[in-house]
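Q: How would the structure tokens look for this protein?
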Amino acid sequence: MDNAIQNLCLFNFREEINQALLKGQPESVLEQIILKYIDEYRKSEKNNTEKEEPEECGICFGEIDNCYTIPGCGHKFCFSCVQETVEQALNDNNVEVHCPQAGCNSKIPTSELYAKFFTPEMCSRFTENSRRVFLMAQKNCKFCPKCEAGLLMTDNKLKVQCPICNTYFCTNCLCEYHEGSTCEQYQKWKAENDKADEMFKEFLKTHGECPECHMACERISGCNYIKCVCGCGYCYKCHKKVKHFSPHILQANCSLSGEGRD
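A: Here is the predicted structure in token form.
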């Protein structure tokens, strides 16, 4: 029992007993007064000794450690669990962090995020996320196709230069600027060019590539030794740098080459 409450009960007990004695009350009345205060004392002690059930975190489902209460809704979680929720929201490019409790739409105030959760690096990311969300909501905003910087347009120019990476791009199709071609013509050319790139990648899988300058080549005949225009000598099969008359070539030591000549 708390000391202040205990002292108050003792004072009331004495007062009640004294009043009963002054009035000449019988012993049965005095006994009832004593029993009443004994009963109150026991109830108080029982309440103090009963252990409260630990609160469960709705994120990790364990006992709450270092409790954090969401302002507004009052839901409680481990501080570290809320910290992870905040970090995940930033990773997802969100600018609002909602209460993790299922079905709850409360938000953690931005002031709370800055004061209790954000590191300097997280502050920068949150600012960048906020800036990007703002720009995406603007009808006159165009994003650079190279560095994704947002530009607020003040006119209808088709050719603009990104102030961040200096790339010129088309504000209509949002691709690199295509001088002398319409957007449709450029898109057609790009699709054909991308197809050629894929074909070239497939070509490199079955043909030689210089390990020094990455110049592609195709062997028509002869041994596996290739001398690139950059001066590098290498094995056509495994692309290892070798000399012309090395055992790798002369003795067919390359595990990929099979015979020295084919």
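The mean pLDDT is 79.

Strands lie at 67-69, 76-78, 141-143, 150-152, 159-161, 168-170, 208-209, 216-217, 225-227, 233-235.

Upvote if useful.
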